[in-house]
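The authors assume throughout that readers already know how a fold can be written as discrete tokens. The format is easy to grasp once an entry is in front of the reader. For illustration, here is how one protein appears when written out as sequence plus structure tokens:
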Amino acid sequence: MIRGTKTHNDFFQQKLTLNIMNRLNEITFNFSLIREISSILLLKKLIDEEHVDRVRYTGMHLHHINGDAEWKFLEHLYQVGYGAADRWLTANSTGWATNQRLSSIYFAEMSKATRG
């Protein structure tokens, strides 16, 4: 029986395929991120120009965190944000936020809207 061995060309092909897949993932992620940022900036512009209801839509902030940020700092930001969201839900909810998943509420509203 002849046993196949990996050649230098096989290794190169695997590395090339991996590099292509990594780059494709990077491009796809960046495209989605750029599209989301564009949507946020458009909504911010509409809010600033008062073309949308300020009661329903409020101002928003977008922050950039440098890649050199320490993990403890990111964990701190997460905890601060989680605490702020929890306080807001406690102060502003009438029970819906604690009893149902927000996604189930969203999809229920969407199906009502599509039924007419």
Observations:
- Residues 11 and 84 are 50 Å apart (CA to CA).
